[in-house]
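Morning run. Coffee first, then this:
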Amino acid sequence: MGNSYAGQLKTTRFEEVLHNSIEASLRSNSLVPRPVFSQLYLEAEQQLSALEGGSRVENEEEEEEGEGNCPPNPYQMHPPPEGSCTTDGFCQAGKDLRLVSISSEPIDVPAGFLLVGAKSPSLPDHLLVCAVDKRFLPDDDGHNALLGFSGNCVGCGKKGFCYFTEFSSHMNLKVTTQPKKQKHLKYYLIRNAQGALTKGPLICWKGSELRSRQASASACSSSLFPPLESSGLPAPFPSEPGPGTTPSVPLGAPQAGPAHDHASLTAAVGPAVFNGKDSPKHQLLVKHSLSAAPRPSALGILSNSGPPKKRHKGWSPESPSAADGGHPQGGGNRAKYESTGVTCMPQVGLVGPASVTFPVVVSGEPVSVPDNLLKICKAKPVIFKGHGHFPYLCGNLNDVVVSPLLYTCYQNSQSISRAYGQYGASTIQPISEEMQLLLTVYYLVQLAADQVPLMEDLEQIFLRSWRESHLTEIRQYQQAPPQPVPPAPGAVAPVTSAQLPWLAGLAASSCNDSVHIIECTYSLAEGLSEMFRLLIEGKLAKTNYVVIICACRSAAIDSCIAVTGKYQARILSESLLTPAEYQKEVNSELVTGKVDSLGAFFSTLCPEGDIDILLDKFHQENQGQISSSLTASSITKSASLDVGGTRVCTSYHLEPHRIRPFQLAVAQKLLSHVCSIADSSTQNLDLGSFEKVDFLICIPPSEVTYQQTLFHVWHSGVLLELGLQKEHMTKQRVEQYVLKLDAEAQTKFKSFLQNSFQNPHTLFVLIHDHAHWDLVSSTVHDLYSQSDPSVGLVDRLLNCKEVKEAPNIVVLHVTSFPYALQTQHTLISPYNEIHWPASYSNGVDLYPENKKYFGLSEFIESTLSGHSLPLLRYDSSFEAMVTALGKRFPRLHSAVIRTFVLVQHYTAAMMAVSGLSQMKNYTSVETLEITQNLINSPKQCPCGHGLMVLLRVPCSPLAAVAYERLAHVRARLALEEHFEIILGNPSSGITIGKHFLKQLKMWQKIEDAEWRPQTYLELEGLPCILIFSGMDPHGESLPRSLRYCDLRLINSSCLVRTALEQELGLAAYFVSSEAPLEKRARSEALESDAEKLSSTDNEDEELVTEGSTSEKRSPVKRERSRSHDSASSSLSSKASSSARCGESPAQAQPAGPSRGDRARSPQPCGPAEEGRALGDRQWPRAGRGPPSVISRCSPGLAPQPEPGLKTGQWSIQVSVPSSSSSGSSAMPAAGPLVLQAAQCSMTKTCRRPPVVFLPKLVYDMVTSTDGSGLPKAASLLPSHSVMWASSFRPLLSKTMTSTEQSLYYRQWTVPRPSHMDYGSRAEGRVDGFHPRRLLLSGPPQIGKTGAYLQFLSILSRMLIRLTEVDVYDEEEININLREESDWHDLQLSDPWPDLELFKKLPFDYIIHDPKYEDASLICSHHQSIKSEDRGTRRKPEDVYVRRQTARMRLSKYAAYNTYHHCEQCHQYMGFHPRYQLYESTLHAFAFSYSMLGEEIQLHFIIPKSKEHHFVFSQPGGQLESMRLPLVTDKSHEYIKSPTFTPTTGRHEHGLFNLYHAMDGASHLHVLVVKEYEMAIYKKYWPNHIMLVLPSIFNSAGVGAAHFLIKELSYHNLELERNRQEELGIKPQDIWPFIVISDDSCVMWNVLDVDCGGERSREFSWSERNVSLKHIMQHIEASPNITHYALIGMRKWSSKTGSREVREPFSRCHVHDFIILNVDLTQNVQYNQNRFMCDDVDFNLRVHSAGLLLCRFNRFSVMKKQIAVGGHRSFHITSKVSDSPMAIVPAQYICAPDSKHTFLAAPAQLLLEKFLQHHSHRFFPLSLKNHGHPVLSVDCYLNLGSQISVCYVSSRPHSLNITCSDFLFSGLLLYLCDSFVGAAFLKKFHFLKGATLCVICQDRNSLRQTVVRLELEDEWQFRLRDEFQTANAKEDRPLFFLTGRHI
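And here it is:
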C-alpha cells in the first residue's frame, strides 16, 4: 500500500504510535497493548479530523476528475440507429432494463448465461440487467475469464452481441471512455427467497473488488463526502488498482510492506472506529495492538495492467511489498454466545431453514461440513450467525452447532435508538452493523483463554458505544423540549464496509491469533469453507474465535463468528441445550456405552493396574483387622462410653420450633398488604365477611420438600390456631393442607376449589411455595399433553378462572428467586410484593437475633481479601483434568466427564484415607480434605456424630452412577459403618442403612420402631455423602451438620441468575452470632477451617495436573494462602493408623516450633475432621484467645484421651503430607487449654457455614463484580423463561434494594411464549394485575415457610379480631344507694310491665350508668343520706383510657361500620342495581318553634331507594312529611319506630349499618349530621337518609341534635295526623314513638329467665344475643305502650346480677338507646345548649312532668368503644395564639372586662366543663357534704362527683321530692325562666354560709334576675363575685353571679 494521499498525515505522530504499539505487542504475549486508535485518536481527534478532512477532500475531487473527466474529449461512440430509443435505463428497442423495474418479471436466461448488473455513468443509482455468457466472466479467484464478450439484452430479447462496445451502445450506457466489460459489469444478480431479483456479490474482476473497497475507505472516512453508492466507489478502471489500494498477494506470501503504509489507511479510518468518542476508555475494547501481520485473503494475483497515468500516486503494482492489507475480518460473534451463555435458553431448531434465507453463493451450492471435523478438532465449532445472509450447510451437520443468538443481539442493539423516539430524535441513528462487528472483534480479542463470551457483556458494549457516540444529542433531548428540526449531529466518520475487514484485522493482530479474521469476496460460504479447511489442517489450534466477514455486497455486510476454542465451544454448545435435551444427551451416552472408554482410561492411570483390582486386594488383606481396629475404636467405643455415662456429646440438639423476629416482621408485612387490598376502594377483598382462614400450600414434586413442609405445618401449630384441627392431629389430617404438584395434584386441588366455593365466609390462602419452579404456560401443555401431564400444571391450577375470580381466595407466591414473576406482563402488582427486610439499616440491627444468616453475599464477601477463610472455592486440579479429558473425549458431554472425574477423585481419596497412600496422587487436595474429614469426624465424638458432604449431581442417571460407584468403593474399603451414602432424588424418599438408622434414633431419642428419616434435616449429625440429584433443587433444607457443599458438577454452562443462585442457595446457613464471623474466624486459631492446610508454606503439595495455569495468571489471587482453589492436606501413607488415638502418646508442647523451623516444615495439622494447618500469623493467637474460642476447638486437635492418661496429657498424633515430609511430627498443642475442647464436629458446623466448591467458570462469574460492586452473576438474564425487553437497558446496581430490582425487571424483561404470563398483557396497567395475588421473596433457607405460616396465624387472629369488638363492660354504679323495690305482685317471667303496677313504682333518681361515674349524685328522699366519700375518683383525662372493656365476638345481629361489606349488605349500602350509586335528592323542611323565636329549616338528603318512606306534594316535589305507621299495625315485617342517630366525627367508624341488626327487616333510619360534615357522611353512606342540622348548630353539642330530632318528630306527627285524618284515621292511632340511638350501639342481648316454680325465689337465667328487630318488636307490642313517655334498656355488663333478673322493669334513668314518645313529651324539651348529661337532664324533666320512664332490664345494649369522634371531637383552644398550649378548666371562666385570653369554644361547653371540675369554688360548703346538697332548679348540671345536687322543677303540678327535710348548701339558678319566682325559692332552707350561683345570658339579665327573685333579701353579693365564660363578646359568653347566704 503506497503512500496514498488519501488519509496521509502531515505528521510523524502516527508512525511513532504505531511503532510503539507493534513493539509492545511483540514483547508481550499475554497483555494486550492499547489499540493504536485509542492512543492516537483519543488525544488528537480534532486536529486529525481537520487534517484528514482537508487532504481527503482534495484527493476525492482528484479521483472524480480522473475517472470522469480525465480525457478532455469524450469517447466517440457510433451514433444510434435512426428512431431508436436513447433514454437512460432503456435499450435502443425502448425496453426497461433497470433492476428496480424488472426485478420480479420472469426473464428467460439461456443455459450457460448468468444475469449480471451493469452500471451506467448516467444512472449512478440504478443497475441495468443483462444476460452474459458465464465463460466471459471471472471465476471466484478473479481468473479464467475468456477475452471478449457474449451477451443478450433481457429487455427486447436481442441475442448474440459479440462485442461489449456494441452491447453498451444497445443499452444506452453513454460512456465517456472506451466501454470495458470489467468496468461496467459490476454485480451478479440473484433471486431472493421471494423470487425477486436482487443485487448479489461483486464480480471479481482481478483486484477491482479490493480497489473499490479501499477507494471507498478513503472516500467515506470523511463525512463531508458521502460515498457515491452504499458499497463504495466503483473501481476506477477495469483492471487498474485505485489509489491507495494493495493488490492481494498469493496465499502464504510474506507480508512485508512498510508499516506506515498500513498505518496511513488506519489513520484515515481511525476516528470512524469510535464515532469520534472515547469509548476505548471503557473497557469495551481493552488493550490490543497491531502486531502479527494480518493474514492475506484469498484473492487473485493482480497483473500490472493499470494505466501509467495513475502511477504517480506512489503505488507499484509489481512491488512485492505491496501486500494485501490482510483485512483479518474481525467479527464479534462473541455476542452470539453471549446470549447463549446468558440466555441459556436453548433455541430449538438451530440448524434449520431459519438459519438460511437464500443461497448467497452464486452457484447456490451449500457449504459442506467435513466428515471428521469433531475427531480432528476435539470440539464442535459453534457458529453464530451475524449480519446478512448465512449460507446453507450440508454434510456432517452433527459436528457443528449453529445459533442465531448473536444475530438477535445485533438486531436488539439496532433498536436502541427507538427509546429516544419520544424526544423526536430523528437524527439519532442506531449503531451501524460495521461498528457492531468491530466492537465484537474487540470484545473477543480481550477475552482471556479461560473466559467464555457473554451476550450481556456485548450488549452493554454496544449500548455504551452508542451512548457515547450520541452523548450530545441524548443530553440535548433529555434537557430541552423536542425541537421541530433537531440540529445535525457533529461530523462523525462512520466505519464503512470496505474499511471493516482492515480494522478488524488490525484489532485482532495483537491477540496471538486467538481471534482469526477471514475475509470473503463473494459470500460467507467461501469463508466458512476456508475455516473448515484450516480446522482440518490444524492451523487454528490456538484460535478460539474465527470471524468471517463478507463486505462485498453493496447493501450491507455478511458476517458470522465461529467459536473454535475447545473450551469455549464445548461450553457454548452445551449451553444451547434445554434441560430436557441435556438429560437426553447424558442418558444416551450412558445407555449406549459411550462412557466405557472413559472408565477404561481411568483404569490405565493407576500404576498398579486397575483400581478395582487394587480395591479387591485391599479388601482381602484387611478384611480381618479393619473391623477390630477402626470400628472398635470409633463406633463401639463411643457407644459404650455413652452407656457408661462417662461421656455424652453435648453438641447435639434439635432446635425447638420458634418464630424469629424476622419472620414475625415479614408475617406482619404480609398482613398489612392483605389489609391494604381490603382497604382499597376496589372492594376486591372483603375481610369483614370472613370468619376463619383456611389454606393450601403448593410445593414442587419433591418428596423431601413435601415431608419438610408437613413437618413445618405440624410444628407451627397453625392448624390448631386456625381452628382447622382439634388437639389430636394426625399426619393424614396435615397432609390435606400440603399439595405436591404432581400427577395427582388436580384431584386434591379441585376439592380445595369446591371447598372454597362452599364456604364463602372462609378466606382461603393459596400459597405457592418455590414459585419460580414451573412457569410453563398451560398452552404448552395443550400442545404436548401426551408427553408429560405435569407440564404447565402450576398455570392450569393457580391461574385457572375459578382461582382468579373467587373473592375468597388470596394467592401468595413465595420464592427466593422472584425474577421470572417480575416481567412486563406479571399478574402481581408491584404494591403486592413483600421482600425480606435487610437486617441492618443505617448500621442499626433492626431485628436482633442470636443467629446470623449466611447467604450468597456473605459467601462472596468471604472471598475478598481480609477474610481469612474463603468459603467459596474452586478446585484447580479437578478443572485441569476435566479440560484435558474434554479434549480427549470430545463426543462426551462435559457433565459426564466431570461426574466421572469427581467420582474417581472421591474413590482415590477414600482409598488414600484408608491406607493406600499411593492413591493420593490420583485425587485433588480438595477432595482429599473432604473425604478425610468425613471419615474421621465420627471418631472425634463420643456418640459418633459426623458431618454431611453434599455432592450435587443434577442429572439423575449420573447421580445413580456416582452412587453405585461410591457405594461399591466404600464396601471394598470396609467403610460401610463409618459414613452413609444417600441418593437424594426428588421423586423418592430417603433410604439409609440399619446401622445409621439405629444411631439416628438413639441421638434423637426416638422409640418408634417404624420411624424413618423423611427430611434431610433429620439427618443431623449423620456422617454421610448426600448425592443430591434433580435438575433444580426444590427448596430442600439441609441440616446444620452440613460441612461441605460440593457443587463442582453443576451445569456451569447454564448462566442464568436464577439457576446460579438456586444452586448456591443450597449452602445458605444460619450460624450462631455469638461473635462476628470475620473476627471469630481469625481468633479461632485452633479450628479456623482446619480442613484447609495453609499452602502458603506447602505450595509443593498441591497435586497439579496438566495445564493448571489459569489461577497463576492473577498474582492477587495467588497471594492469599491459596484460599480460592483451597489446597488442603494430603494424607501420608500412615493416615489411617495415625488417626487412631493413643498409639504413640506425645507430650503436648507448650508452644509451636520457632518461626524459623516452621518456615519450610509442613504446618502441623490435626489428624481428624478439620485438621487444618494453622498459618504463621494465626498460630500464636491460640494461646491467648478467649476460652470460648478454645472450647470450639477442632475435633482434630483433641482426640479422646485413653483412660490411663493423666489430665493434661492428650495423645495427639499428626498426619503429615508425605510430599513434603516423610515422618510424623508431634503437634504443638496449646497446653492444658485443649482440655475444654469440644470434640464433636457438630459444635463447629453449627457455628460456621459450609465450604462451597464451585466449577471455575461459575466461581469466576460469582466472584467477579462490576464497577458498582455488583456480582457479575446478578446481571445475567434472570431466568430461562424470560427475555430482555431491550438491549437498551441500564445495568443493575449494587445499591438497588429488592424493590428497585423488581421494578428493574418489570421494566426490562418480557416472558417467553412458553411462560405462563406470556398471554397476560399487563404492562404496568393496574387493571392487568390480579388484585388478590401477593409475592413474598427472600433469600433461600432464611425462614420464609415459618414466616408465611405465622402470617396465616396472625391473619386468622386479625379476622377474629375483625369479628370481635371492644364493648364497655362496667358494673352499674351507686347500686347500694338504691332501695329495694317491691315487685312481689309481678312474675319474673312477665314480658311487659303492668301499667297500673308500674305507676306505683317510685322513680329512682340515682344515676346508675357507669359512664356518669364522675357526675354529681342526685339526692332523693328515698336514699339513706350518708356523707361518705363516694370512693376515689379517676383523673378527668383517664375517663376514656381506663374504662373497662370486654372483647366480644360480633354476632350475626351486630351493627357495622363502613368497613363491613358482605353480599347481603350490598343493596342496603347502596349497591342496588335499580338505583344508581349515590343517587339522592336534597329536600328542605321548615317548621316554626316558639322557644327559638324563629323558623327552623332542616334539610333531608333522601336516596331514591328510600323515598317510599316520605310523602311528597307530587313525585319529585316538595317534601311534606315522613310516613308513620299505626299503633294498631301488627306486622312483623318492619319496625314501626323511625330511628335517629345523631353523629359527629364518625363517618367511618359509626355503626350505621343496621341491616344485620334488624335481621333484614324494613326500617327507617335517619343519620343526624352537622352541615359541615354532610358531604363526607354522604360519601361513606350513600344509601342512608341524612337529616342535616342548620349551620348555626355546627358548633353545638348533642343536646341540639336531640332537641331538633324531638321537635321535628313532633311536628311530623302533627302533619301525619292531619294527613291521615283525611283518610279516616284517628289522631291517637298514629304511632308516636321514635328511637334515638347512639352511633356506638353494636349488639343487643336478652336475658332468658327460667323460673324454678310459681312465685319461687329460685330461678336461673342465660343471656343471648338477639336482633334489634326482636327487641323493637317486643317493646312495640307492649300493652298500653303509648302511656309510656320514655322506654330504654340496660347497658350490658358481664357482671349481670340477680337484681336485674328479679326486677324485669325499672322506673329510672334511660340512656344510649331510647324509645321516645314524642306525643306525651310534647311539652318537655331537650336543652339545645347542652353538651354533657343532656339525657339525665331530660330524664329528670320527663319524670317531674309526671310521665313514665320504663327500663326493660331483660334487654341490654352493648356499646362499642370507638376512639374517634363523638364528644371527644370538641377541642378547647385559645382564640388568639395558634400554639397548641394546654388550657386547663380553671381558665374557662374569667372576670368580666378582664384581659384574659379568650377561648375558641361555645360558652355552654366552657360552663359545663368548668362546673364539672371546679364547682367547689362556687359551692365550698357542698364539697363531700352529701347530706346538704346543692339545690338545682329546673336543670341538672354536673358539679363533679364530690358534690350532690337536688333537682326540683318550678313547673306547676310537677313531681318533686319533699325538700322540707333538707338544709341545702348551695343554690344553682341556670337560665331560669318566669316559672321561678321569689315565692318558690322561699320554700327552701339553706345552711348559713351557703353559696348561690346565678347564670344568665348577659349582665343585664343577671341584674334583672337578682331583682326579680328578691335575692338580695337573703343573699349577699360583692362586685368581685361576678364572672363570665372566657369568650369574646361576639361569641356571647355566659355570666355568673355568686353570693353568700346571710
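The two ends are 135 Å apart (CA to CA). Good start to the day.
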